[in-house]
Specification:
Number of helices: 16
Order of helices and strands: EHEEHHHEHEHHEHEEHEEHEHEHHHHH
Number of strands: 12
Radius of gyration: 21 Å
Distance between the termini: 16 Å
Helix content: 40-55%
Oligomer: single chain
Strand order of the largest sheet: 3-2-1-4-5-6-7
Low-confidence stretches: 248-256
C-alpha cells in the first residue's frame, strides 16, 4: 500500500493561477508516482471534489482588527496569524494521511494545532521567503513585520520533519538557523516543442502579474532601460504580458504616462504559446524576490533565451547553465545583442532547451520531489 500525502494549499489548484500554485500542481503530479496524493485548500468555492481527493475550506476574509489582536495574543506575525484557520484545522483532522505537505510556511500553522501531529510527518515547501518580500515591498508595515515573519518561518521549519526550498541559498539559510533537514528542490519543467527563435523578429518580452510588487518593480526597470536597449535598432519591440497592478504608486507613475516607443502592454494573452513563438528572448530585470521562478522555468522548457539578473534566476543559474546580468550596462548590452543577432539568440535558446530536456529525461525533478517526501 502506497503512503498517503496530503498537500495543504493556500489557493484552489482547480481555479487559481500564479507561479506558486503552478509549481504546487507539478509537485503533486510528480508525487503521484510513488504516493497516494490528496489536497486540502483554501478556496472561494463551496464543496469538495467529487472523488474526495480535494477538500475545500472557505477562505476567510481579512478582518484587520481580529487579525491584529490575534497576532498580539499569540505573538505571531500577521501572515502566520492570517492563515491559522479553525476550518483548516478541522479539514486536516478529517483527512487521514501519512504525510502532510504545507505549501508555504504559514500553511503549517493549522497542522501544528491539529490532532494529526502525533501520527504523521510534516513537510514544508517554503515556496518563497515571505519575510524578505514583506521587508522590501510593504513599506513601513513590511519592515516592522519582517522580523516577526522570519521568526515564524524558522519556528515552523524547526517543527517540520523536512523542509524544501526552491532556492539553494534559502536552504542554506535554514541550515544555519538550526533546521538540519532543509534541502533545495531543484525543480524544472517538462519540455514542450521548442520555439522557432530563428524565425522571430526584434521582439523581447517581459512576463509578470504586476499586482506582485517584485514584478511591478522589475516592470519599471524594464521601461527605464528600454530606450537604451532599443536605441538605433529598427523595429525593436518590448511586449509586456500580465495584468497591471490595481493600484500603482510608483516613482515613475507608469500608469499615467505614455510608454517609451516600441513598448506594448499586452495584458492577458489568450494564446501564450503562439505569441511567445514571435519573441526572441525573455527579459527579467528582477531586483527583489526569490522562491518561485516559473517565468525562467517556462522559458527553459520552450527554449526561449533569458536575460535575467541573479535575483531573477537564483539557483537555476547552475542547473540550467544560465548567465546573469546584474549590471545595467551588461543587461542592456545582452538585450541589444539578441535584438541584433537572431542566430545568437537561436543558439542560446537551443542550448537552454537541451539542458532542461536532459534534466527531465534523467528524471531529476521527479527524484527531487520523491526524496523530499520520503523519510
Amino acid at each position: 500500500m502506497r503512503p498517503t500525502v496530503t498537500f495543504l494549499l493556500s489557493k484552489d489548484p482547480t481555479t487559481e493561477h500564479g507561479g506558486d500554485i503552478a509549481l504546487s500542481r507539478l509537485v503533486m503530479r510528480l508525487a503521484r508516482e510513488h504516493f497516494d496524493v490528496r489536497a486540502v485548500c483554501l478556496s472561494g468555492i463551496d464543496g469538495d471534489a467529487p472523488d474526495g481527493r480535494l477538500v475545500r475550506v472557505p477562505k476567510p476574509p481579512v478582518r484587520r482588527l481580529p487579525l491584529l489582536l490575534g497576532r498580539v495574543g499569540a505573538r505571531r506575525s500577521l501572515v502566520h496569524a492570517r492563515f491559522d484557520v479553525p476550518g483548516l484545522v478541522r479539514a486536516i483532522e478529517s483527512v487521514d494521511s501519512d504525510i502532510y505537505v504545507a505549501e508555504h510556511s504559514y500553511m503549517a500553522e493549522s497542522y501544528l494545532r491539529s490532532a494529526r501531529t502525533a501520527g504523521s510527518r510534516l513537510v514544508i515547501n517554503t515556496v518563497n521567503t515571505e519575510s524578505q518580500v514583506w521587508k522590501l515591498t510593504r513599506g513601513l508595515i513590511g519592515r516592522m513585520e519582517a522580523p516577526r515573519i522570519l521568526r515564524d518561518e524558522i519556528r515552523v521549519a524547526r517543527a517540520a520533519d523536512a523542509v524544501g526550498t526552491y532556492d539553494r541559498d534559502e536552504a542554506d539559510f535554514y541550515t544555519r538557523h538550526g533546521v538540519t533537514n532543509a534541502r533545495w528542490i531543484p525543480l524544472t519543467l517538462e519540455p514542450t516543442p521548442p520555439l522557432p527563435i530563428s524565425q522571430t523578429g526584434r521582439r523581447l518580452v517581459f512576463i509578470g502579474t504586476r499586482a506582485w510588487p517584485p514584478n511591478q518593480e522589475a516592470f519599471e526597470l524594464a521601461l527605464r532601460w528600454w530606450p537604451a536597449i532599443s536605441a538605433r535598432i529598427p523595429d525593436a519591440e518590448l511586449c509586456i504580458i500580465g495584468a497591471p497592478a490595481s493600484r500603482t504608486r510608483t516613482r515613475t507613475r507608469t500608469r499615467t504616462r505614455a510608454y517609451p516607443a516600441g513598448v506594448t502592454d499586452m495584458g492577458f494573452v489568450a494564446d501564450l504559446d503562439t505569441f511567445l513563438g514571435t519573441c526572441r528572448a525573455l527579459i527579467a530585470p528582477v531586483a527583489t524576490g526569490g522562491g518561485v521562478r516559473v517565468k525562467i522555468l517556462d522559458a527553459a522548457r520552450r527554449g526561449l533565451p533569458v536575460v535575467g539578473t541573479t535575483t531573477a534566476v537564483g539557483s537555476l543559474r547552475t542547473i540550467l547553465e544560465l548567465p546573469v546580468f546584474d549590471d545595467q550596462n551588461a543587461f542592456v548590452d545582452q538585450c541589444r545583442r539578441y535584438l541584433w543577432d537572431r542566430d545568437t539568440a537561436a543558439t542560446d535558446g537551443q542550448r537552454l532547451y537541451e539542458v532542461n530536456a536532459r534534466r527531465w529525461r534523467n528524471r531529476l525533478p521527479h527524484a527531487a520531489v520523491t526524496n523530499l517526501l520520503r523519510p
